[in-house]
Structure formats: structure tokens, C-alpha cells
Amino acid sequence: MTMRLKPLHPISVFVMVVAVNGMGAAQAENLEQTQQLLSTRECRNCDLSDVSLVYNDLSRVNLQGADLQNANLSHVDLSGANLSGADLRGATLFNADLSDADLSNANLDRADLRQAYLVDADFEEASLDDALLQGAIGLPDTVASLQFLYDMGLAEADRGNFEEAYRYYTRILELRPDEPTVYLARSLARYHVADVGGAIADANQAEALFTASGDVEGQLMAAGLSQRIIDQQEAIAEGPSAGRPNFLNLLESIVPFVFQFAF
Tens of pLDDT along 115-126? Predict the structure, then answer.
């Protein structure tokens, strides 16, 4: 997938409006180091906290150990950048390209990584507590916990985006293929995108796993879902004169069950 970035504004027209007379020493140093980064692409251990560098091309820059707290790096090309050990707490990296970037030992707590491109990025020993990761592309399995993926699936389903919910559930099942509640949740998602066969198959798989674990409530719920889908399809095939099974009543019992599940 190719990330589209807006054309880079040349450094020659990069404008910063600064009240020089009122500038403190720390602000002056911050501005100087920002200019150093843009001109040399090298700024190890620099103080770049609170800077705004939106839409810039910072691919393969060296920002090892830099202080980028609360920096605005939205839509920035940071592909291949060295950000190892950088402090990115509270930084905004919305829609940024971090493909192949070195983020090892970086602190990304509370960072906004929504819709960021993370393919082949190195997150070894990185901290991402309370980071926003919705819609991030190429999120490594080491970064995305099963609970995060499940919560994202539920959130997408709640918004009516069942195709995206299906993708999150599928990713979980690729890593943990024995979670019956995830099959149950994915069955509902597949039903809503008219994948009736897949919905029935997932409900049946959930039933089998619930049965194996001795979870009677889950077993009955999965069996009920599978049968209700079959009944509804048969009623649809018979035409308008046929009675329709009440699918909503079953959903009202399944949805809370699915939402209460936690890894």
C-alpha cells in the first residue's frame, strides 16, 4: 500500500514566525535544533518538544534519543528514520509514514498513531501505553495485544463497520484459533455483510469450542445463533408469506455476552 503525502514545502519557504525579543533561551534552542534537523537531517538527542513539522519529508533522519514530546508530526514521512530511544510521549503521528523506522526503546505513551503506516517498523522494547492505534496499517503483533484487537473489532461493529470488525476478529483467530467468543463475534460480523455460510460456520465452530470447554451458556448461545440464521434464510426463501424468526431477540442476548468477554 502506498501512502500519499502532500508535496513537501521546500525549506527555503519554511516559515516560522517568532517573537524574537520575547523568546526565552529554551525556545531559541528549540528553534535552532529544528532548523538543524531540516537542514542536516541529523539531530540526535535534540529538544524538539512541541514542534510542528506537519507534511515534511523526514525520511531516514537521525533523531535517536530526541525529545519529541507533544510534537505535531501528522502526515510526516518518517520512513526509515532512526527514532530509537526517542521520547514521543503525547506526540501526534496521525497518518505519518513510519515504515521501516527504528522505534526501539522509544517512549510512545499517549502518542496518536491513528492511520499511521507502520509496516516493518521496529518497536522492540518500545512503550505504547494509552497510545491511539485505530486504523494503523501494519501494526506488529508484538504491539497490538489480543485485547486491543478485540476491542477494536467491537468498536468497528458498534459503528456498523462490520467488514473492518471481521478483519480484527480474523487477526485474533490467526493468533489464537481456540477462542469461541471471537468466533461468535465474527459470526455476527459475517452475517451483517451477507456472508451467511461463513456466519453459520463460525457459529458452529464457537459451539464446538464452548462444548469442549464445558461452557453451557456459550454453547447454547452459539447453537441458537446458527439455527436462527438457518431459520431466517429458509423463511426468506419461502417468500413474504412465511413467518420470520425473531432474530433481534437473540442478538439482544448475544451482544452483551460478546462485549463482556476479555482476554
Answer: 999 999 999 999
